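Collaboration report, partner site 2.

Our partner group contributed sequences for two proteins of shared interest, and the home lab folded both. The records are reproduced in the order in which they were received, starting with the first partner submission.
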Amino acid sequence: MIQDVIRDVQHRMHGSIEALHREFKSLRTGRANAAMLDGITVDYYGSPTPIAQVANLKVPESSLIVAEPWDKSMVAAVEKAIRNSELGLNPSSDGKIVRIPIPQLTEDRRKELVKRAHHVAEESRTAIRQVRRDGNEKLKKMLKSHEISEDDEKRALDEIQKMTDKHINEVGDILKHKEQDIMAV
């Protein structure tokens, strides 16, 4: 029973770290990366569809992404979706492919992105702490209903706290790396 609670806490904390990685992939760093476009959806015959499902995305050079829609009639929709995204990109097309130049980031934009990264990291830390709180409450209920002893509860609480500390530190390390990535010229 205790192991089920601990496994659940571990799984959910790991999920928070994975979500942080996904969120950071969408933050621009000044270098072309197809994952930057992951959050963009294209109106595909009336249905919002992720861009990667309507176009082949390539990165031929460090400052350019190329989107080649499988259906050539979707070129304009892909271009419009990218232009209307919050990424501040200005794509152009030749009727067959969409070229997305990735401009160098200004110092102000870099600072703005670092601030956003800190916000996302704090959300991740909050999620991890919430998972800890949920796990601790489950253990307290188990103790109250006499399913576990006080010693078992204390050991489990300590283990959950160690997992929490480990994952919070991991968020800090990931944030530090992303911050260096954003500020690198």
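Second partner submission, folded after the first:
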Amino acid sequence: MMSSTPDRNIGLELVRVTESAALASAPWMGRNKKIEADKAAVDAMRLMLNTIAMDGVIVIGEGEKDKAPMLFNGERIGNYDAGFDVPKCDLAVDPIDGTRPLALGLPNSIAVVALAERGSMFFPGPIVYMDKLAVGPEAAGVIDLNASVADNLNAIARAKGKSVTELVVVVLDRPRHEQLVSEIRATGARLKMISDGDVAPSIASCLPDTGVDAVMGAGGAPEAVITAAALKCLHGEIHARLYARDEKEKKLAEELGYDCNRVMTSADLVKSDNVFFAATGITDGELLRGVHYSAMGATTESLAMRSSSGTMRRILATHRSEKLQQILSDQKERMAEREKLK
């Protein structure tokens, strides 16, 4: 188990991490510079993660997907030289979930990080996508990724006390989902197509009055693990299965020991029951308000969640510009000194 001292506060420390990534990347909104925005978020997130008293390993990072120089899979992270027992952790990070919406000035871009005990997070290896079905707590336990779309939507509707025609299903707007969209429409359920980022709507399916009942379709495999961490905190559920894009990728998965037919649940994707999750809005969205600027500085809205307590905090913060710059400068100096000592 995690040691008791950081165990109490590490969730709020993670909010500082996602706030930093959001504040660093928000100035790039609408400037159509995805690489620059991502680098700003990665740098800020790594800087803040290294201030937390933990011995962390990045299991889901930026390296495989975005060829980032930092926050790559397997990177050791955190202030593990702190003078007391520090928890050994797995981390899943996405400094910008929705890089394209941020670059184009569109809604629903967020910064996210999840943390759990060492060895508890599933690593999808080179497989980029997973087929997913995510629902909130009312429908947890009734879904089956091997069942038909109609059977799943009928089960979700019964569990939520609705008719199928009242359900809203979120699907990424991709050519690969043409058949899925046809099957959803055939049931009479309502459909909401999104351009990017299926973590936020999966979280929204667990919250009241968001207008989201389920998320379906193939999306990023790393995001499936991040979603599982969030849904474990909210008592929702995700089912996911590795989605090989072609026979070559399927053969590679088999050679590496991955089973593309196996349906994994939230408990398979994140085995720990002591999970922390934080997210901060970058651009305005249905789940979180984005970064807004004023004469005083900037405001952010974040979520902080923990599975073992079931607590979810919604945090509104005001950041003074001059204080932020000084804090970041001091932290960069400390990190530079630390690197010299290695």
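Feedback sent to the partner group on the second submission included the following. The radius of gyration is 20 Å. The first helix runs from residue 4 to 25.
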